[in-house]
């Protein structure tokens, strides 16, 4: 990974100092972990997901009901990851790191992506250098889509705004069956795994994958009334729909038409860290409770990137401060509705598809 420094700019630094002061004053402190709102939401999605799962084994359901139950299990299972797992990866659910690691492990079981590897790339790459080519793994070269202006253009990209939804449906399955293995074994990601013993990585990985595949494939094949072919078909198709939900809530938060894709100039980026986060993030329906409820605060993306050490259930207090302070300092803050953000994402794909 390239090492990158952020430029020191007194006005931008002053903006960030004032923003932090106002936010920590409003919150009455600096450390904020999971509160009642946080646990209520996480428990709600866990009950929905595992109740649907339990009914998969009922004798009185037909194929169509089985498929819908599998879909609810996968969608709500994804939202367990959004509402509990993401915070746990940032150590903001509990004060104890160990408790966060345990929560992260179990809250990703319904998604299947290795939590330790995901957490490492999320914290060590994406959060530090959002949208910077070579430093943010989330925009690493993708064989099907050109997401950033620094990626090489190919003829097929002309149509990427049309075929992107089909590629996106493969996102979760690709991570479960390919991405995780590459992040675990490839030498290219040695920097990401630094400081974690190989033994720990491998043991946790193996236990996690055994539990995940038992949950989603082995147990339904062994104990439901349906053939293994039908169970696999249900797993793959509902997984594709869950992947679309995942992408819809996240992809536009960094890939939208007005986003910046800064290139480092001799290892330095044009702006301070805080302004960089604002230039590369987009909020959606940040003031809406329903949006925070389903996305685990991922809709308040600027607040999350600026205050990753605060649990997401406090973002509703942070958002108005970001809005005011960015206006006062004339600094960009992107906030759209979910549908406008998706339109902006498709426009971005179309733009990137031009030679
Ligand atoms: Zn995060």
TrEMBL record:
It is an enzyme of class 1 (oxidoreductase). This is Acyl-CoA desaturase. The keyword Magnesium does not apply. Its EC number is 1.14.19.-. Residues 67-334 form the Fatty acid desaturase domain. Keywords: Membrane, Oxidoreductase, Transmembrane, Transmembrane helix. Pfam families: FA_desaturase. GO terms for molecular function: oxidoreductase activity. The chain crosses the membrane at residues 42-58, 64-82, 102-120, 162-185, 206-226, 232-257. It comes from Gaetbulibacter aquiaggeris.
């Amino acid at each position: 990974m390239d090492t990158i420094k952020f430029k020191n700019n007194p006005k931008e630094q002053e903006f960030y100092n004032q923003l932090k002061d106002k936010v920590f004053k409003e919150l009455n402190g600096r450390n904020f972990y999971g509160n009642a709102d946080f646990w209520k939401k996480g428990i709600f999605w866990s009950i929905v997901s595992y109740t649907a799962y339990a009914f998969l084994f009922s004798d009185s359901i037909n194929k169509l009901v089985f498929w819908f139950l599998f879909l609810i299990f996968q969608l709500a299972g994804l939202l367990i990851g959004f509402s509990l797992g993401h915070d746990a990866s940032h150590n903001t659910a509990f004060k104890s790191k160990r408790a966060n690691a345990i929560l992260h492990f179990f809250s990703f079981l319904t998604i299947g992506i290795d939590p330790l590897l995901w957490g490492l790339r999320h914290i060590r790459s994406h959060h530090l250098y959002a949208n910077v080519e070579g430093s943010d793994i989330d925009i690493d070269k993708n064989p099907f889509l050109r997401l950033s202006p620094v990626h090489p253009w190919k003829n097929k990209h002309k149509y990427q705004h049309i075929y992107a939804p089909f590629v996106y449906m493969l996102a979760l399955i690709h991570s479960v069956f390919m991405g995780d293995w590459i992040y675990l074994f490839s030498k290219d990601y040695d920097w990401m795994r630094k400081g974690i013993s190989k033994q720990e990585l491998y043991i946790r990985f193996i236990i996690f994958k055994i539990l995940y595949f038992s949950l989603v494939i082995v147990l339904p094949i062994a104990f439901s009334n349906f053939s293994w072919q039908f169970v696999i078909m249900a797993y793959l198709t509902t997984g594709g729909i869950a992947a679309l939900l995942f992408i819809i809530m996240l992809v536009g938060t960094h890939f939208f038409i007005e986003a910046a894709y800064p290139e480092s100039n001799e290892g330095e980026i044009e702006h301070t860290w805080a302004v960089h986060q604002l230039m590369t993030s987009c909020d959606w329906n940040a003031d809406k409770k329903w949006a925070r409820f389903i996305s685990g605060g991922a809709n308040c993306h600027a607040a999350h990137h600026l205050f990753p050490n605060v649990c997401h259930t406090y973002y509703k207090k942070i958002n108005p401060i970001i809005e005011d302070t960015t206006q006062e300092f004339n600094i960009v803050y992107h906030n759209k509705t979910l549908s406008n953000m998706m339109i902006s994402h498709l426009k971005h794909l179309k733009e990137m598809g031009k030679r």
